[in-house]
């Protein structure tokens, strides 16, 4: 499964956040004997639509999609030089498919900041600089080899060209995802190098309770932080509050959440935004056995979606019977949705949309 690596400076609230995330680890809950890496958290993707479908179809159970987070300890200034924790840190982050930076925005004199003051902009700069320097080192190490291989006609000249463009961008201090957006290079050519800054980024700002909610001061505080990372996605949460919420039963959690001024836990937002940042989406199936969300890459076709359930479904794909969740719920039943003409027959070129409720027809 694709994973999101959680990184950040020491004392920003990573462990607090990670522990809250894993408080309802679905792997731990459903597969008590599975080997679970202590630094991996598999969390359900919140999807209120599943409970609604389960009521409509009288399903025995609900199976949400999941999002995997990896707690990557140890980024400090100098990590890119590969000393001490640095090497392990870089190896771990290389394996992640997206990077979630946790940034401290809360003020608390009892919690030391590594650099002595709370300064989100400076912290983002510190982390990005380490990642850019690590990539620069990787590219500089690879260039002589690539040059030799291109001379010997053993490598694609386009790869060498992309590596040179990457070196230039990184030397300018630019993460490669930015350079890609600016059209300076083609990421596909760099895949073999295992670079860090080509990965999608999202940001979690660990804020004071006063920065949550809808009052003007809170909105302004969040807007200021969002500006630091735009166009990347930002999530605002209070890690301590999240860990309290994770430990409460549903009623008490709802009450505490309402007091905080939030309409849903920050962790739910994090799971949703993280899932989308990985380039994933879901489609839904519903029946008496289960109502379920299935994970597919954004842009997947109907046969590819069928293949996630079973490879035979993809091989023998005939068509997909598709109704949008909203139409189905409006109609109140599959039969009524059909008689309203809301259920479509889609062929092998159909690109799946979010909220599609699907039944596949296939040859065995
Ligand atoms: P890590 O080093 O990034 O993993 O940070 P920790 O999660 O261990 O948190 C460091 C310290 O900050 C701990 O004492 C936490 O209780 C505290 N802390 C974490 N999140 C918050 C928060 O949102 N507000 C406040 N005031 N303290 C927090």
Automatic annotation (TrEMBL):
InterPro entries: ATPase_YchF/OLA1, Beta-grasp_dom_sf, G_OBG, GTP-bd, P-loop_NTPase, TGS, TGS-like, TGS-like_dom_sf. Its cofactor is Mg(2+). ATP binds at residues 11-16. It comes from the Bacteria. Keywords: ATP-binding, Magnesium, Metal-binding, Nucleotide-binding. SUPFAM superfamilies: P-loop containing nucleoside triphosphate hydrolases, TGS-like. Residues 279-362 form the TGS domain. Gene3D superfamilies: 3.10.20.30, P-loop containing nucleotide triphosphate hydrolases, TGS-like domain. Residues 2-257 form the OBG-type G domain. Pfam families: MMR_HSR1, YchF-GTPase_C. ATPase that binds to both the 70S ribosome and the 50S ribosomal subunit in a nucleotide-independent manner. HAMAP family: YchF_OLA1_ATPase (MF_00944). Belongs to the TRAFAC class OBG-HflX-like GTPase superfamily. OBG GTPase family. YchF/OLA1 subfamily. This is Ribosome-binding ATPase YchF. The lineage of its organism: Bacteria, Bacillati, Actinomycetota, Actinomycetes, Micrococcales. The gene is ychF.
